[in-house]
Specification:
Length: about 325
C-alpha cells in the first residue's frame, strides 16, 4: 500500500506586509531583501491562529478530495508555533472539521515537518493502520519573530497548507530523513515560559529577551541546506531507482531563493523544475511545501502519473526527502 494525494488545500491571512512597509520600522529596503532572499511580501495573521488556519486549509483539502470529514482516520498537524499545547492542534482541527473517526497528533520538526508528516502518514497506511489521512503544516511565525531583527523578520510569514492521502495499492517509495542535533545552534528559540510558569507572551514585545525569539545563523543554515538537500534528494532517488529525468517537479521548502537555485545547480536540473512562491509568502516553515503544492494543483500543473520530489530542511538540524506519484 502507498499513500496517494487526492486533495490539497491552503489558507493564508489577508493582511500583508511588503518590503517597503517593513523598511519603515527596521533598517532594510525592498531591493536588499529581494536580492538576498527573493521575498517581496509576507502574509501576517491578525485574528487567525495556527488552529484556525490549519482547520480552514484542512477543510479545503477535504473538499478538494471530495470526501466527508468522517472518512478521515488520521490527522497530523506539523507546527512549531501552535497557539495551543493541550489539547494538541490536531485534536482542535478534528473538532473543527467534525472528523470524529480520526486520531490526531502534532509533529514538531520545523521546516522539515510536512515531509516527515507525509512519511508518517505513509507508514500508517503501509502498516494498515489507516486508509485516509489529513496532513497539515500550519505556522504563525509572526508571533515568534523579533520585528526589530532584520536578520529574521524579513524572512518569515504565516499560513497553512494541507493534503489528503488515501491508501491505494501500488509501489511505496522509500523516504530519506536525517537529523543532526550537534548543529542545532544554527537555528534556535527558547520556550517563552519561566520555571515558575509565568508566560512571557503577556509582555510587550520589546520586553521579551532575544532568546525567546527565533535566532538564526543565516550562513550556517545556507551552507547546510545547499550541501544536504541535494544529497538527500540523490539518496531518495537512488533508493527508489528513480532517474532525474523522470521527476516532473522538486517541491522544496521555501526558505530562500538562493538556496533553491543552489540546489538546482548542484543537481544540474533546470529551474523550471523548482517552482517557488516565497516571493509572496516568505518562509512559512512547515506550511511552505503544502501551500506551494496546493497552488500547483489549482493551476493544473500536477499531471496524473508524474513523479514529484518533496524536500524539507530546517531547525534541528533536520532534513529529508520523499517521492510520490501524482
Amino acid at each position: 500500500m502507498t499513500g496517494v494525494i487526492i486533495g490539497t488545500g491552503s489558507y493564508v491571512p489577508s493582511y500583508v506586509i511588503d518590503n517597503n512597509e517593513l523598511s519603515q520600522f527596521v533598517d532594510t529596503s525592498d531591493e536588499w531583501i529581494r536580492e538576498r532572499t527573493g521575498v517581496e511580501r509576507r502574509h501576517i495573521a491578525s485574528d487567525e491562529t495556527v488552529v484556525s488556519m490549519a482547520a480552514e486549509a484542512g477543510r479545503r483539502a477535504i473538499d478538494s478530495a471530495k470526501i466527508a470529514p468522517e472518512e478521515i482516520d488520521l490527522i497530523i498537524v506539523s507546527t512549531i508555533s501552535s497557539d495551543v499545547i493541550l489539547p494538541c492542534a490536531a485534536c482542535e482541527v478534528q473538532k473543527a472539521l467534525g472528523a470524529v473517526n480520526a486520531v490526531g497528533f502534532d509533529l514538531n520538526a520545523a521546516c522539515t515537518g510536512f515531509v516527515l508528516a507525509f512519511n508518517t502518514a505513509n507508514a500508517y497506511m503501509m502498516s494498515g493502520l489507516c486508509k485516509k489521512a489529513l496532513i497539515i503544516g500550519s505556522e504563525c511565525l509572526s508571533n515568534l519573530t523579533n520585528w526589530k531583527d532584520r536578520r529574521t523578520c524579513i524572512l518569515f510569514g504565516d499560513g497553512a497548507g494541507a493534503a489528503v492521502l488515501r491508501a491505494e495499492e501500488g509501489k511505496a517509495f522509500l523516504p530519506s530523513a536525517h537529523s543532526d542535533g550537534t548543529k542545532g545552534a544554527a537555528l534556535t528559540m527558547k520556550s517563552r515560559h519561566d520555571r515558575n510558569g509565568i508566560t512571557k507572551e503577556i509582555l510587550p514585545q520589546e520586553m521579551i529577551k532575544e532568546e525567546y525569539f527565533m535566532k538564526m545563523d543565516g550562513q550556517a543554515v545556507f551552507k547546510f541546506a545547499v550541501k544536504k538537500v541535494p544529497e538527500v534528494i540523490r539518496d531518495v532517488m537512488k533508493s527508489n531507482d528513480i532517474k532525474q529525468e523522470d521527476v516532473s517537479y522538486y517541491i522544496l521548502h521555501q526558505a530562500n531563493r538562493r538556496i533553491v537555485e543552489a540546489v538546482a545547480k548542484r543537481l544540474d536540473e533546470p529551474m523550471e523544475k523548482f517552482p517557488m512562491n516565497l516571493n509572496e509568502y516568505g518562509n512559512t516553515s512547515s506550511a511552505s511545501i503544502p501551500i506551494l503544492l496546493d497552488e500547483l494543483n489549482k493551476k493544473g500543473m500536477l499531471k496524473k502519473g508524474k513523479l514529484i520530489v518533496l524536500a524539507g530542511f530546517g531547525a534541528g538540524l533536520t532534513w529529508g526527502a520523499s517521492i510520490f506519484r501524482w
